[in-house]
Specification:
The protein has 297 residues and is α/β, with parallel strands linked by helices. It has a single domain, classed as Alpha/Beta hydrolase fold, catalytic domain (Rossmann fold, 3-Layer(aba) Sandwich). The chain has an eight-stranded mixed beta sheet, sandwiched between helices. A hairpin with a 6-residue loop joins strand 1 and strand 2. Helix 2 crosses helix 9 and helix 3 crosses helix 5. The longest helix has 20 residues. It is globular and about 55 Å long. The mean pLDDT is 94.
């Protein structure tokens, strides 16, 4: 008997849950102190726990705010895997970072995660005064699956006319959930993402193939990109997702959206967590510097 994608996804949750939270020891930024608290946000898909990182340097005015979505193929729910990035950005970009523990599949398939991601970001934008951050100076970003959710949040905000992020950061984003993963190539023989693993992720997150063309699932298939926030798009040379990230950056640019696209050579998916360390540090600093510029005006 064939094992269904839901059971396979639960097995991957057990297998990868601990692995996903491991970060290369030289990327942990242990010299940066952590100032955090936890809060809960009610959303249309249930309450969501968020970890709030505060910059260590106090200022006379509320700091801007960055909403972060972790990766994990929409299946592995470990927001702490981004602790090093959140701490670095809070400390060096001078902004509050809200790290979101969104719902994952197969227990909570699409659209639970997109609903929660948008609702949390809308709440962050509208509740700055009570939480000592400036919700009018807001950016949003994520890694892998979290980058897909970032694109969905920005699209929904544009369509509803609710808030306008000053920057979206898309790091190694899956942007086409319709294409067979076997058609997504890498220049190396054994990239981190395998077609089998990617199929399990997609089947668990969006069980109905007809919904995989939804622009909130596959932002890269949408043709109405005008009016989206400025974007920093990061891709990895050896990543199977590189081509769709590059295509999305070009499509945003063609639609008049300001885009910075950086391809990191000689690295694979998740390099901002596992290294190589020089590339990982450079990419994280690029995120922080881009946020400093976007949020300082």
């Amino acid at each position: 008997m064939a094992i269904g994608p839901g059971i396979q996804a639960r097995g991957i949750q057990l297998l990868l849950s601990g692995v996903m939270s491991r970060v290369h020891k030289d990327l942990r930024f242990t010299d940066i102190p952590k100032h955090t608290e936890s809060l809960q946000v009610d959303t249309g898909a249930g309450p969501v726990t968020c970890t709030v990182y505060r910059p260590s340097a106090a200022t006379g005015t509320p700091a801007p705010v960055y909403v972060n979505f972790h990766g994990g193929g929409f299946v592995v729910g470990r927001p702490e895997q981004d602790d090093h990035i959140c701490r670095y950005i809070a400390a060096t970009a001078g902004c509050v970072v809200v790290n979101v523990d969104y719902a994952v599949a197969p227990q909570r398939p699409f659209p639970a995660a997109t609903t929660q991601a948008y609702d949390v970001t809308e709440w962050v934008a509208g509740n700055g005064h009570a939480n000592n951050w400036d919700g009018s100076r807001l950016a949003v970003g994520g890694h892998s699956a979290g980058a897909n959710l970032t694109a969905a949040v920005c699209r929904t905000a544009r369509d509803r006319g609710t808030f306008s992020p000053r920057l979206q950061i898309l790091d190694s984003a899956p942007l086409d959930q319709l294409a067979d993963p076997a058609t997504k190539h890498s220049p190396i023989a054994r990239p981190l993402l395998t077609p089998r693993l990617m199929r399990v992720f997609t089947a668990a997150y969006v069980p109905d193939p007809a919904r995989r063309t939804d622009p909130l699932v596959s932002p890269g298939l949408a043709d109405d990109l005008a009016g989206l926030p400025p974007a920093l798009v990061i891709t990895a040379e050896n990543d199977r997702l590189r081509d769709e990230g590059e295509a999305y950056a070009k499509a945003l640019d063609a639609a008049g959206v300001p885009v910075t696209h950086r391809v990191f050579e000689g690295v694979d998916h998740y390099f901002t967590h596992t290294g190589p360390v020089p590339a990982g540090k450079e990419a994280i600093e690029l995120m922080a510097s881009s946020l400093r510029t976007a949020l300082s005006a």
